[in-house]
Each structure stands twice: as C-alpha cells, then as structure tokens.
Design a protein that fits this description.
Length: about 325
C-alpha cells in the first residue's frame, strides 16, 4: 500500500466509474469521494475535481497535483482560495477531442444545410425545398485553435469549407487561415459565416460573443458555442437572431447550468440547445493519463497537460 490518497470531488461525474478506473490502474491509492466539505488539514495527495466548492482545495493538506475533470479549468480557477503553488493539470484525451469534433462537424453541417428550417417545415407539414450554399463558398471560423479547435478544423476539411481559426499565437495548419491576437479578430469575424467557439474561459475571452462581435459577422451568420456559457452574452445573441442579422445558433453551454426553465433560449426557433454534452471526459482513458502524471510527479517531474496559471488555460 502506497499510503497515498486521492479525493474525488464532482457534483456531476459518476464516482463509481472513476473509482473502478483508479482501482484497476493504481490499486494502492486510497480513493475517497467528497462533496468538498473537507475539514482543514484533511490529507490528500491527489485531487480529481469538477467545480469544487470554493476553499475546498485550500483545506486539503499534502496535495501534489490537482486534476481537472474537464479540458477547461475555469471551474477551478474561479475559487479565490485556489492554491496556486500546486500543479493543475487538465484533460487532453483523444476520446474527448473526437467527441468535440463530432459535435462541431454535426452542427456546422446542420447550419450550412439549414437543418432547423427542414425541421420547422416538417412540423408544419410543408414541402419546401431550398438550396444550401456550396461548401466551398461557406466560411467556417473557429475561435480557439488548440487541442479541440485544431482537430475540429482538420475534420471539417474533407467537406471543402473555407476554414480559418483565431488564436493568441499564429498557427501553420494547411488549409486553415490563421488569425492571431485581438488586432486580427475583426478581420476573422468579417470572413466567417459559421462561427465556432472553442476558447478557454479567461478574463480576456469572457463575453467575447457579444453584440459587437455579432455585428462584425456577415448577414445570415450562425454561431456554435461549445466552450463556456461565460463566453456568450445570451441577450445579445437573442437580439441578433430576432433582428434577422444572424440566422441561427447552437448552444451547449450557458451562463446558468442547467439552463433555467424560463430561459427565452429554450423555445427560440433559431437556437439548438444541448445540455453541456458536446464532449464528455472518459474515465477509462483519462485515468491512465492521470496515473502517468502521478508517476512523473513522484519522480520529481511535472504532470502531463499542466495548466499555465499566468495564461489561465
Ligand atoms: P486549448 O488550451 O488546447 O486551446 C485554447 C485555444 O484558445 C488556443 O488556440 C489558444 O491560443 C486560444 N486562446 C486562448 N485565449 C485566447 C485569447 N485571449 N485570444 C485568442 N485566442 C486565445 O483548449 P482546448 O482546445 O483543449 O479546450 C478549449 C475549451 O473547450 C476548454 O477550455 C473548455 O472550456 C471547452 N470544452 C467544452 C466542452 C463541452 O463539452 N462543451 C468539452 C471540452 C472542452 P494559443 O494556441 O495561441 O495559445
Ligand atoms: C470540459 C467540459 O471542459 O466538459 O472538458 O466542459
């Protein structure tokens, strides 16, 4: 028995699946599930968390690494008492990446081909064929060309879309026009018919999907937000859709989750809603990476996919 302990804190991830993954990969580590109401000084070598209550991580003693249960870490960094001296690792996993690319391809195609119009016509019993724009005349722009954005771009290539991405640093991906930094955001938006948000939520990106952004998109544009609810000013989107400047939206993430029953987003005829399920973390593959990070740390190294706390992602 290593004597090490792992504390698992998540209001939504299934602890049983994680426990069984860790039991088979690292049977010597004691696995404890907590709601985060830990008493100060509770010993834990590893914390595996999604939306831990504020202050919970700071109350743990002996932590060697905090593992986010998601690719995004805004849910951890929002804690004013986050213990900044402890390494924070995020999820980078081929199954998560594949899931997100499936979601992006599905919804880019849905907006390009007018799927919501077909569904409305079917509901009305209306036989009303229409022509979609050619793919090679349809410009898809991805905000965030990291692990997820780049894979989504690569999987969109075979359809023939005109692809571009926006990131902090310039990318060199064949067939994907690269825009970098705030100075190039307006030009990126002006050439984008279908805008996909795959940015991390940081102070610099919070509220980036707002009325000024939408005004820069061409008439009839659509937006797909699969990143974080904090990126989108929901009332600005509804205004842009109702004014007719924008044609449609897909939202997987929301300012408040679950999306409140009285939100005007639910019944909106131009919005497709999914309940934060674009890409889910698979315990079987992700626990392998976490166990590998633990071995690296025991050997004096750093975890895989460590978050740069200065950048916030
Ligand atoms: P990465 O860190 O790999 O990529 C982030 C990208 O965003 C990078 O290209 C980065 O630029 C760019 N970026 C960050 N800040 C800025 C900025 N201020 N201006 C311009 N570009 C910026 O993250 P992932 O691709 O792994 O994940 C992205 C997000 O997707 C997660 O943070 C999470 O919020 C969300 N997500 C949502 C899921 C869902 O189910 N809805 C599932 C998984 C993730 P650069 O490359 O130059 O650093
Ligand atoms: C993530 C998420 O960040 O599922 O991985 O939202």
């Amino acid at each position: 028995m290593s004597g090490e302990t792992l504390v698992f804190i998540s209001p939504s991830d299934p602890p049983k699946a994680w426990e069984s993954a860790f039991r088979s990969l690292a049977p010597d580590i004691g696995f404890t599930v907590s709601r985060g109401d830990v008493t100060p000084g509770t010993r834990a070598d590893w914390a595996v968390v999604w939306k831990p209550p504020a202050g919970a991580l700071a109350r743990l003693a002996g932590l060697k690494c905090i593992f986010s249960l998601g690719a995004g870490v805004d849910h951890v960094l929002v804690d004013p008492d986050f213990p900044t001296g402890i390494p924070l690792a995020r999820v980078v996993d081929p199954y998560l990446t594949a899931g997100m690319s499936e979601y992006v391809v599905l919804h880019v195609l849905a907006h390009h081909r007018g799927l919501m119009r077909n569904l409305a016509d079917q509901a009305a019993g209306r036989w009303a064929p229409f022509a979609a724009k050619r793919a090679d005349e349809t410009r898809v722009g991805i905000l965030g060309l990291g692990e997820l954005g780049l894979d989504a771009a690569r999987k969109l290539k075979p359809f023939g879309y005109r692809l571009a991405g926006w990131s902090q640093t310039r990318k060199d991906e064949p067939g994907v026009e690269s825009f970098a930094g705030t100075d190039e955001l307006a030009a990126f938006l002006a050439r984008t018919d279908i805008l996909v948000c795959l940015l991390p939520l940081t102070p610099a990106t919070r509220g980036i999907l707002n009325s000024a952004t939408f005004a820069l998109l061409p008439e009839g544009a659509a937006v797909i937000n699969a990143a974080r609810g904090g990126h989108l000013i929901e009332s600005d989107l509804i205004a842009a859709l109702d004014e007719g400047h924008m044609a449609g939206a897909t939202l997987d993430v929301f300012q408040i989750e679950p999306l409140p029953g009285d939100s005007p987003i639910w019944p909106h005829p131009k919005i497709m809603v999914t309940p934060h399920m674009a890409a889910l973390t698979d315990p079987r593959s992700t626990a392998i990476t976490m166990v590998e990070s633990m071995a690296r740390i025991r050997a004096g190294g750093r975890p895989l996919y460590e978050v740069d706390l200065r950048r916030g992602y």
